């Protein structure tokens, strides 16, 4: 999955212009109940302004609140985030760390045109979907020796026992020889036989939960 597949397009985004005052930026932040806004110069990306940075800059300004908001331009505060953006062709998973402590990431074209944003909320929602957290089922955590064809073998066993796979996520263990796997399947009368078959086929079951 790529970033563009979960991007909120420009026409659905709240933005502010670089030459707007902070008074206008704060009005949008509060009215729309968002924590950050992409800053544009016309159609081009110019940075990000966050609620936190606006407050921090105000406390360092030694100005009265009303004077500060009316006299300070958005560009004066947003400059520090000018290099924080993606271009949309990045693998979606790479955005997780970038959004760990930041609410949004602008998506920008090669010519610096603003295309849209991805949000921390959307990233977390996609990972919840990848782990099957939005559907009821049986979650099975197990390990397998890292050999060629193990995932194919796993899905073949699931097919034999008519198990419908909701999600399948794998992790490399620290020694690189063992793969940890978390599979979520729909509840099925064959689940006990399915797990017994996994064990007899070399998959070591660690934990089973129903959610």
Describe it.
The chain is elongated. The strands form 3 sheets. A 4-stranded antiparallel β-sheet has the order 8-9-7-10, with helices on one face. Strands 1-6-5 form a 3-stranded antiparallel β-sheet. The protein has a 3-stranded mixed β-sheet with strand order 2-3-4. The protein contains 8 helices and 10 strands. The protein has 211 residues and is an alpha+beta fold. A hairpin with a 5-residue loop joins strand 8 (165-172) and strand 9 (178-185).
In short:
This protein is an alpha+beta fold. It is built from 8 helices and 10 strands. The radius of gyration is 24 Å and the shape is elongated.
Strand tally: 10
The helix-and-strand class reads alpha+beta
Estimated helix fraction: 25-40%
Residue fraction in strands: 25-35%
Count of separate DSSP helical elements: 8
Strand order of the largest sheet: 8-9-7-10
Average pLDDT score: 86
Q: What Rg do the Cα atoms give? A: 24 Å
Shape descriptor reads elongated
SSE string, helix = H, strand = E? Answer: EEHEEHHHHEEHEHEEHE
Weakly predicted, low-confidence segments: none
Q: How many strands, what sense, and barrel or not for the largest sheet? A: 4 strands, antiparallel
């Amino acid at each position: 999955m790529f970033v563009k597949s979960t991007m909120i397009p420009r026409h659905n985004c709240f933005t502010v212009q670089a030459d707007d005052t902070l008074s206008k930026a704060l009005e949008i932040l509060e009215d729309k109940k968002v924590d950050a806004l992409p800053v544009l110069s016309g159609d081009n990306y110019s940075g990000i302004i966050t609620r936190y940075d606006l407050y921090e800059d105000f406390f360092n300004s030694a100005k009265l609140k009303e004077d500060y908001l009316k006299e300070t331009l958005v560009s004066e505060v947003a400059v520090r985030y000018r290099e924080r953006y993606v271009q949309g062709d990045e693998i979606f998973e790479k955005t997780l760390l970038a959004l760990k402590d930041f609410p949004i990431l602008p998506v920008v074209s090669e010519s610096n045109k603003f295309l849209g944003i991805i949000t921390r909320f959307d990233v977390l929602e996609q990972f919840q979907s990848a782990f099957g957290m939005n559907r009821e089922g049986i979650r099975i955590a197990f390990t397998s020796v890292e050999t060629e064809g193990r995932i194919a073998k796993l899905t073949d066993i699931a097919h034999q026992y008519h198990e419908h796979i909701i999600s399948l996520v794998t992790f490399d263990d620290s020694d690189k020889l063992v793969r940890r796997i978390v599979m979520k399947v729909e509840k099925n009368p064959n689940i006990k036989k399915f797990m017994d078959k996994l064990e007899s086929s070399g998959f070591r079951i660690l934990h089973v939960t129903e959610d």
